[in-house]
């Protein structure tokens, strides 16, 4: 892959556009809450919703009917202008780049509310070329409309080609915020034989060896483990964040929680919420467990300079467990700064 020189990588792509960030802004993003902005009754609830979620995303792409695409774009502009979002992120998911709507989504939204928009989520990203295009276009629009801070890009990983190119996508621009798994489109793109939006499948399993006439144990496997792990490595090594995407079975709270927790344990920062009951799940899952945080604090206290060896509750601690503890405590501190309920549970 041909790459830009390090000096040029961090320069704005248009005269007058803001400087790209060197480090991502620190933000708690446990759930990216999807709303359909063409619906007036949904827009009427945004003010009350802002303090209850970490990110509000106005969805313009899939699930918005073709005849409502323009109303969704206008509705998003209206809801962006109507409220102060404070520390809650404001994102939009635009239509994909080869659709009839993407160009107007991007140009009209940046022109009208570019200063309020934190992140553009770009669907169906196949390679770094998609990011380069949006990167350049956003810079031109930021310059034209005197946007003060760079608008970040979040890619959805939802095609076989995108997964193949995930490392290059993660490194494509300093504008990259992170990536989400898009299990529904990805299943279709890969010709997986499923009809679900994320989650497990009862037929994806392994069977224990036969032992006499005893029933053979069956273990269901996680269809998404490989892709989530690959995404996490690509994102973490590029200094950006990874997210589990949507869980479509809104009524199956237990399965949603397990899928989210697997993603959290593997390194993801959050997931999408498609319904208010998934907000509570994401909040619980993507805020570190107070018991784990208490143990991590003990490790940091036992090894103040981060090196050496200590025994805590019979478990060996060294420089590497200190680093794990630091990840956990840093994450808990960020959550505590945003959420007083967790600040109390962590004792910060
Ligand atoms: C999300 O966009 C998905 O396709 O799962
Ligand atoms: Mg999709």
Automatic annotation (TrEMBL):
Record-level Gene Ontology MF annotations: lyase activity; magnesium ion binding
Binding of Mg(2+), residues: 158, 185
Cofactor: Mg(2+)
Record-linked InterPro entries: Aldolase/citrate-lyase_domain, Citrate_lyase_beta/mcl1/mcl2, Pyrv/PenolPyrv_kinase-like_dom, Pyrv_kinase-like_dom_sf
Domain of life assignment: Bacteria
Protein keywords: Lyase, Magnesium, Metal-binding
Alphabetical GO biological process terms: oxaloacetate metabolic process
Domain HpcH/HpaI aldolase/citrate lyase stretches: 52-270
Residues where substrate binds: 93, 158
Membership in a protein family: Belongs to the HpcH/HpaI aldolase family.
PANTHER family reported in the protein's UniProt record: CITRATE LYASE SUBUNIT BETA, LYASE BETA SUBUNIT, PUTATIVE (AFU_ORTHOLOGUE AFUA_4G13030)-RELATED
Protein name as it appears in the record: CoA ester lyase
The organism's taxonomic lineage, starting at the top: Bacteria, Pseudomonadati, Pseudomonadota, Alphaproteobacteria, Hyphomicrobiales
């Amino acid at each position: 892959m041909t790459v830009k020189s390090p000096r040029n990588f961090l320069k704005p792509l248009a005269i007058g556009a803001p400087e790209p960030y060197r480090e991502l802004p620190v933000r708690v993003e446990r759930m990216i809450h999807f709303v359909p902005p063409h619906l007036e009754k949904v827009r009427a609830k945004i003010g009350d919703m802002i303090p209850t979620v970490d990110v509000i995303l106005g969805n313009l792409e899939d699930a918005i009917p073709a005849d409502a695409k323009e109303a969704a774009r206008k509705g998003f502009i209206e809801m962006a202008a109507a409220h102060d979002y404070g520390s809650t992120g404001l994102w939009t998911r635009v239509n994909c780049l080869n659709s009839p709507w993407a160009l107007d989504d991007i140009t009209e939204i940046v022109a009208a509310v570019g200063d309020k928009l934190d992140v553009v989520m770009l669907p169906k990203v196949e390679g770094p070329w998609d990011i380069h295009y949006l990167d350049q276009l956003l810079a031109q629009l930021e310059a034209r409309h005197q946007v003060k801070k760079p608008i970040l890009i979040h890619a959805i990983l939802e095609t076989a080609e995108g997964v193949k190119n995930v490392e290059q996508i993660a490194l494509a621009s300093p504008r990259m915020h992170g990536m989400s798994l898009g299990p529904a489109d990805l299943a279709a793109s890969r010709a997986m034989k499923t009809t679900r939006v994320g989650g497990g499948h009862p037929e994806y399993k392994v069977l224990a060896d036969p032992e006499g006439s005893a029933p053979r144990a069956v273990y269901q496997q996680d269809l998404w483990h490989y892709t989530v792990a690959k995404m996490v490595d690509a994102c973490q090594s590029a200094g950006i964040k990874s997210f589990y995407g949507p869980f479509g079975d809104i009524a199956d709270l237990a399965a949603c929680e397990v899928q989210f927790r697997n993603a959290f344990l593997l390194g993801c920062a959050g997931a999408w919420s498609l319904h208010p009951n998934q907000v509570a799940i994401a909040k619980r899952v993507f805020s570190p467990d107070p018991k784990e945080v208490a143990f991590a604090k003990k490790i940091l206290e036992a090894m103040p300079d981060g090196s050496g060896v200590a025994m805590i509750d019979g478990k060996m601690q060294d420089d590497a467990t200190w680093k794990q503890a630091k990840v956990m405590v840093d994450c808990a501190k960020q959550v505590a700064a945003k959420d007083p309920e967790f600040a109390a549970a962590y004792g910060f």
